[in-house]
Every structure is written in structure tokens, then in C-alpha cells.
């Protein structure tokens, strides 16, 4: 039944929320991913999402590369393809994990089209969103953002900058959903995780993020615009794409909006970040 599908999605999120509030230091994820150099790579997994959403750092977090000396690699222009060994309990398999830039510029879209055109398409997608806390990599984008916010008559502040990014994120997700449907890749897709990243920056607002990213069980008309697209993409669970929407913090740090505003402080200690990350792994492990 429709409502149950979204109830389940909400329950999985709620578990992460609870662990973020009360970390259980003894908990361990049952799945391990490791970057490897050689070998076959079946089971392609794509990490999608807007520029600056946290895709590259999320991959580094997934393969456990984020230690005390970690420095984020900066803006990536091209598609990144990694051979990855996935170990769940006693079994292991190789996957290629492809980090694909956002869908809204031609350049970026080409990378995703190429992935779909391989004939097999991804078996799983981790779609990265970040509640408006995109790192504004590109000076051109920053200028467009400033122009559009000024034209709208809004003051330039955290709220208007985040709203601008959220609108872009929504448009990007719409394009992704359409491409998956039109290319037929949706029929091959076995799972989708919406990774609500950088949650260390907005943990105090996590309930509002949950309401934005998860369709409302039993009440389609109450969905947020993002929820509406997600509901359509997954056909309320009827198209056999397994779905989770979960918060994740790959790398806690203060956020620079990039336009001269005060930084947004991160709100996580190490135990909280580890607990939420572990839960993300547990969920990912169920799908692999
Ligand atoms: N606070 C916080 N910042 C993050 C997190 N993940 C990434 N970032 C920051 O966001 C920037 C962009 O991330 P990146 O993965 O390079 O974005 P991409 O363009 O989607 O690949 C990084 O340089 C980090 O500074 C996170 O979980 N929390
Ligand atoms: Mg990147």
C-alpha cells in the first residue's frame, strides 16, 4: 500500500535522526567499501547531484578516506570513475562508482547521458542534496545568484542564498527523474538513496529537512515540490525501485556561503557524525 512505502522511508530516516541525537558508540556498520585499482566493475553505482552538493567528499567518506588529515579535493570538472570493492559480511563484489556532475549544464548532462547510454545504466543511484548549503564553486554561478536574488527584491542573506540553491537542486532533480524515465534506465534501476548531505550544518532544522525531502505518507497533496518529484519517480514504490532518504554528514565543517555572509557553524561532534554515517552505511548495505 502506498502509505506504507512512505512510512518505511520515514522510519529509516527517523532511525538516523535518533542516532544523530543519541549516538551509540558501540554500533558498527556491516558493510565496507574500499577503493581498488584493478578488476572487473559490474554493478555500476552513480553518485549524482548539483555542483558543490558534496558528491566527491561523500565518495571519499564511503570508502573511508576521511581521516584527521583529510582535505576536500575542491571542484571537480569531469566525471570521476572509481573501482570499488563492496564487502557485506562474508561476501564481496566489485562495483564501479561514478560521480556525475549536475544535470543543468550541457557539459554536466553529457556525463550522465553517457552513463545511461552504456546500455546497462546504474543499478543504484546515490543522489546528493544538501538543503541549500551548496559550496558555490563557480564565480559565474555566484554572479548569477547575486543578480537573481537582487532582481527578486529579497535581501542577500542565508535564507535567500539557500532558497536559490534549493530551487536549483529541485530543477536538477526534475531533470534527473525525467532522464531516468525517458532513457529506460529507470527500469533497470534497483535502488535509489537520496543522501541529504551536510546535515551537520542544519541538524537543528532536521525535522524541516525531513518534511521537505520525504513525501508525506498517505497525503500526496501535502508533498513539498521535491517530495512530489520523488513520489513520481518511485511511483509510490510500485516500480520496484527500492528507496531510502537518509541524512549524512561526510565531513563536518563550517559553511562559507561564498558571498561575504557570516559562516554557518557546523553542529556535530565526532560521535554524532560517526553515528549518522554508520546509519547511512547500514542502509546502503541493505541495497548492495
Ligand atoms: N559541513 C559539511 N561540509 C561538507 C560536507 N561534505 C562536503 N562538504 C563541503 O562541501 C564542499 C563541496 O563538496 P564536494 O564533495 O567537493 O562537492 P561536489 O561538487 O558535489 O563533488 C567540500 O569542499 C566541503 O568543504 C559535509 O558533510 N558537511
Ligand atoms: Mg566533485
UniProtKB/TrEMBL annotation:
InterPro entries: P-loop_NTPase (IPR027417). Residues 69-88 are annotated as: Disordered. It comes from the Bacteria. This is ATP-binding protein.
Amino acid at each position: 500500500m502506498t502509505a506504507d512505502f512512505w512510512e518505511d522511508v520515514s522510519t529509516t530516516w527517523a532511525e538516523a535522526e535518533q542516532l544523530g541525537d543519541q549516538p551509540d558508540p558501540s554500533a558498527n556498520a556491516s558493510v565496507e567499501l574500499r577503493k581498488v585499482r584493478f578488476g572487473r566493475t559490474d554493478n555500476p553505482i552513480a553518485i549524482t547531484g548539483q555542483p558543490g552538493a558534496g558528491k566527491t567528499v561523500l565518495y571519499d567518506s564511503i570508502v573511508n578516506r576521511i581521516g584527521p588529515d583529510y582535505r576536500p579535493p575542491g571542484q571537480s570538472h569531469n566525471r570521476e570513475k572509481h573501482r570499488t570493492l563492496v564487502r557485506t559480511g562474508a561476501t564481496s563484489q566489485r562495483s564501479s562508482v561514478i560521480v556525475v556532475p549536475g544535470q543543468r549544464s550541457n557539459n554536466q548532462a553529457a556525463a550522465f547521458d553517457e552513463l545511461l547510454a552504456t546500455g546497462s545504466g546504474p543499478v543504484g543511484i546515490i543522489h546528493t542534496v544538501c538543503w541549500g548549503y551548496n559550496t558555490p564553486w563557480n564565480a559565474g554561478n555566484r554572479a548569477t545568484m547575486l543578480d537573481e536574488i537582487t532582481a527578486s527584491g529579497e535581501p542577500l542573506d542565508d535564507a535567500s542564498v539557500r532558497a536559490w540553491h534549493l530551487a536549483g537542486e529541485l530543477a536538477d532533480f526534475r531533470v534527473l527523474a525525467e532522464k531516468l524515465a525517458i532513457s529506460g534506465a529507470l527500469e533497470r534501476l534497483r535502488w535509489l538513496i537520496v543522501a541529504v548531505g551536510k546535515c551537520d550544518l542544519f541538524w537543528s532544522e532536521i525535522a524541516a529537512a525531513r518534511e521537505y525531502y520525504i513525501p508525506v505518507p498517505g497525503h500526496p497533496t501535502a508533498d513539498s515540490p521535491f517530495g512530489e518529484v520523488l513520489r513520481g519517480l518511485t511511483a509510490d514504490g510500485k516500480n520496484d525501485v527500492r528507496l531510502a532518504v537518509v541524512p549524512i554528514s561526510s565531513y563536518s565543517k563550517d559553511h562559507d556561503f561564498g558571498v561575504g555572509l557570516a559562516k554557518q557553524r557546523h553542529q556535530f561532534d565526532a560521535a554524532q557524525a560517526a553515528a549518522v554515517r554508520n546509519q547511512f552505511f547500514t542502509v546502503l548495505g541493505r541495497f548492495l
